[in-house]
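Just curious: can you write a single protein's sequence together with how it folds?
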Amino acid sequence: MDRMLVFAGQVALPVGHRVEVSEHLDPRTEEPVVLTVVDLDTGIRYRRGDEPRGEVTHWIGRVLECTVAVGGAPRTSLLIDPIGPSASGAGIALRGADAAVSAAKAEADRWGGTDRPPAEERERFW
């Protein structure tokens, strides 16, 4: 699944280049925040000024589209195709799985069956 990254700055990356993205989850919004983008083909590193707090995840992708807006507030939009499994995607999938488990448990509790004692087995005759 392609990922759209938006930066408040000018990050010009050629289409087709491989990039490594480092990100961490914002504790307030639970959304991934990009810390660094490294162009693996040229070695150029783009980094945010603030230091990360918490666990940092890394993933590699290929640039599909790059749009740099100049004037006013400079902004860059990158469309990246992740190569291989993404750690942040795995985190999102796990949060979704946890929510599904909680919903299934709530549904099972609502339909009952957990509060009844098990039926006694009848004596067997051979």
About this structure: Strands lie at 3-7, 18-25, 32-39, 45-47, 56-69, 75-83. The first strand starts at residue 3 and ends at 7. DSSP finds one helix and six strands in the chain.
